[in-house]
């Protein structure tokens, strides 16, 4: 079996372990905390690699060296420090791309693929690097891989001198990036996140929104390359902010949900023509609104604008001991049979996976 096959087998084992414990990883936010660009470092307990074990008819084997029957293999060496009474936990960090994690999310929740609207028939071509080849132009030479091959050859032949560590690649050491041209439909999408940041939305509620929005983005990025993301916060007034501010801001004023919906409408009308863009507005709140009149205004905005312009409208209600939760009830009463308004009740972090299924399970 080749090293590449061994590596693929090991990644399959890791992938299975992640999928098995996926709900725990999502609810604790472990993956997001170790994100580096498009890669996510995932801490896993040390995984047992399968080993040969003798059956009852084959006890032991043939060995060499000094020793007598009954001797242990390897003498214990004295350690330093005081003894403990709990077992140590060895952690392994593995890297997965956000796309790979989105694929696991889709498998775990049985999410349907999204069928984008918009410019379905307009195609774009792009160059995708697909591996390494023994020949190619110098501009595509993979320097690191070529250097490693040259170093390995010199070490194995005994010509490498650590005192004078000069590595000279030969022609047979060279590796070049190989590529292929792929054709894809050109579709565009934007996610507009709106969140109530009044005093009743505490750190725990915002952490739920932070984790959930990461996985929503991961799934949508699987279907739309170059996904755009915008952020709106509101109490009695709404404003656009960056991602960091979105998850850290706390206010203490009243709540007018319509202020966020009006700003979102302005944003769409200015920057995202609905015939060209797939539009995903997500609103998160604890369900308190200033008045029934403002709730009726929100419902009118949904009827008159959002439902005809967006793929769907998504409302997530995060449980708070200070929030009444009335807004969710009002939306369900008005749009209970309309699958263009998708609601979800998020009681705690353990319900994040269920909420993602609520939002993305219809493939809008």
Mind explaining what this structure looks like?
With 364 residues, the protein is an alpha/beta fold. The protein has three domains: 1-49 and 91-110, no CATH class; 124-183, no CATH class; 186-360, von Willebrand factor, type A domain (Rossmann fold, 3-Layer(aba) Sandwich). The chain is built from eleven helices and eleven strands. It has helices spanning 3-20, 22-28, 30-33, 98-109, 143-157, 203-223, 243-248, 257-271, 292-309, 326-335, 352-360, and strands at 35-36, 39-45, 91-97, 123-133, 176-185, 188-196, 228-234, 238-241, 277-285, 313-318, 341-346. The protein has a six-stranded mixed sheet with strand order 8-7-6-9-10-11, sandwiched between helices. Helix 9 (292-309) links the parallel strand 9 and strand 10. Helix 4 (98-109) crosses helix 6 (203-223) and helix 8 (257-271) packs parallel to helix 9. It is elongated, with a radius of gyration of 28 Å.
CATH superfamily of the largest domain: von Willebrand factor, type A domain
Question: What order do the SSEs take from the amino end to the carboxyl end, as H and E?
Answer: HHHEEEHEHEEHEEHHEHEHEH
* Record field, number of beta strands: 11
The appropriate CATH architecture of the largest domain is: 3-Layer(aba) Sandwich
- Beta-sheet strand percentage? 15-25%
Largest sheet features: 6 strands, mixed
Radius of gyration: 28 Å
Count helical runs.
11
Low confidence ranges: none
How many domain units? 3
The spatial strand order of the largest sheet comes to: 8-7-6-9-10-11
Helix content: 25-40%
